């Protein structure tokens, strides 16, 4: 569900639309079998579950590692060097990837609630001394447009998978 049409504050709009798209990701993969979640229907080769894992890492890279400069073990854990694109680890299951996605989204919500849109990213994580460090507003807008694009990708894959086009 989209945020209320009466919202006018940029922080509330960004947070509301991010939650709208986060929920849309989960709705698009809901009801797909483990096999369907792991099967690619597109020439580039990504699967719906790989995309969910990617979006969890987008949250981690931009909000935790990027904005907050929190130490994270593997910020690029959605990629593998040999494939050069999104990938699942052997131990990844639909349940574990969805739980990881939800965990990263919740951590991002806390970071946003504790911050102001004009706050600048900390040094030491994704952004090192001398790097141009983005504001939280820039990061949230960037993450929002990434979600919008990828939810569109999931729309297409879901329609190809079982003709569900909602």
- The total number of structural domains is 1
Reported for the largest beta sheet, the result is: none
Mean pLDDT: 94
Q: Helix fraction? A: 55-70%
CATH class: Mainly Alpha
Number of helical stretches of at least 4 residues: 5
Look up the CATH topology.
Four Helix Bundle (Hemerythrin (Met), subunit A)
Q: If classified by CATH, what would the architecture be? A: Up-down Bundle
Shape: globular
- Along the chain, the helix and strand elements come as HHHHH
Number of strands: 0
Q: Would you tell me the structural class of the helices and strands?
A: mainly alpha
Fraction in beta strands? under 5%
Task: Fill in the keyword field for this structure.
single chain, mainly alpha, Four Helix Bundle (Hemerythrin (Met), subunit A), 166 residues, MST-like, DinB/YfiT-like, 55% helix
Description:
With 166 residues, this protein is mostly helical. It is 55% helix and 0% strand. It has one domain (24-162): dinb family like domain (Four Helix Bundle (Hemerythrin (Met), subunit A), Up-down Bundle), CATH 1.20.120. The two termini are 13 Å apart.
Task: Give the SSE map.
Elements: H1 10-29, H2 34-38, H3 48-67, H4 94-113, H5 136-162
Helix pairs in contact: 1-4, 1-5, 3-4, 3-5
The gist of it:
The chain is mainly α. The chain contains 5 helices and no strands.
């Amino acid at each position: 569900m989209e945020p209320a049409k009466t919202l006018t504050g940029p922080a509330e709009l960004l947070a509301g639309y991010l939650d709208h798209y986060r929920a849309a990701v989960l709705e698009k993969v809901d009801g797909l079998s483990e096999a369907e979640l792991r099967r690619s229907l597109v020439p580039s080769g990504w699967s719906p579950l790989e995309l969910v894992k990617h979006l969890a890492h987008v949250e981690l890279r931009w909000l935790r590692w990027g904005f907050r400069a929190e130490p994270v073990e593997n910020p690029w854990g959605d990629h593998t060097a040999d494939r050069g694109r999104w990938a699942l680890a052997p131990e990844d299951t639909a349940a574990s990837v969805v739980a990881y996605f939800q965990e990263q989204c919740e951590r991002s919500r806390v970071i946003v609630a504790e911050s102001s849109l004009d706050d600048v990213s900390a040094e030491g994580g994704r952004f090192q001394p001398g790097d141009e460090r983005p504001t939280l507003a820039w990061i949230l807008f960037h993450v929002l447009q990434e979600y919008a694009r990828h939810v569109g990708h999931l729309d297409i894959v879901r329609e190809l998978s079982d003709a569900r086009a909602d």
